[in-house]
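Re: [ENG-882] Designed sequences occasionally contain unexpected residues at chain ends

Forwarding the minimal case from QA. Structure tokens:
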């Protein structure tokens, strides 16, 4: 039985917001904002990290077709390096909110940091993607859009195995960086190599 709550404020138009890719070494951070009907539910809808890739892909069109409104915001790796990943994550959420065709009256944010958006009241919820349906829906859209992007650029740089690791600091990703160096999609403000690999360049 799905234990996620449908909303925090029953009488307000409420958007859920989440991002994907914050801890990655390469590629953008992508955020989503979703306004769901108050009575929307789906037995699978949950924090995207708790779902298989197959279920996320099935849920994405269901969310998009049933949502009152949804938006996607993207901040690329160059801007992440310029403004830092926290500011980039918040900016991506603001960009996603900009895309909503219905203006929210309240915003629920996954996490504990946010900057006010257009004077609309908001609340940050730690692990909110496992507590509220609208944040869970946003987490699924953000994750699937970002995974799709990383699979596309994997065709350009297949040695980093992005179709598999999606840019996260996995062993195979860092091994490739150690062997062939970084590329234009890497976040140069991040520690691209594990400490034990840095000695390779002494």
């Amino acid at each position: 039985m799905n234990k996620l709550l449908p909303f925090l404020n029953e009488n307000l138009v409420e958007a859920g917001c989440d991002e994907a890719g914050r801890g990655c070494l390469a590629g953008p951070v992508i955020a989503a904002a979703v306004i769901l009907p108050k009575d929307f539910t789906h037995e699978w809808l949950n924090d995207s990290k708790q779902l298989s890739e197959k279920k996320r892909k099935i849920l994405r069109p269901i969310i998009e077709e049933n949502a009152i409104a949804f938006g996607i915001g993207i901040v690329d790796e160059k801007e992440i390096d310029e403004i830092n990943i926290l500011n980039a994550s918040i900016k991506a959420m603001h960009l996603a909110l900009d895309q909503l065709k219905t203006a929210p009256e309240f915003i629920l944010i996954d996490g504990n940091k946010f900057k006010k958006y257009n004077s609309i009241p908001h609340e940050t919820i730690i692990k909110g993607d496992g507590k509220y349906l609208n944040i869970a829906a946003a987490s699924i859209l953000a994750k699937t859009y970002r995974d799709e992007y990383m699979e596309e650029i994997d065709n350009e740089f297949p040695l980093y195995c992005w179709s598999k690791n999606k840019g996260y600091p996995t062993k195979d990703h860092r091994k490739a960086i150690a062997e062939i160096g970084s590329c234009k999609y890497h976040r140069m403000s991040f520690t691209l190599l594990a400490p034990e690999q840095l000695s390779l360049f002494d």
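QA comment: On inspection the terminal residues look reasonable. Confidence is low (pLDDT under 50) at residues 198-202. Proposing we downgrade this to a documentation issue.
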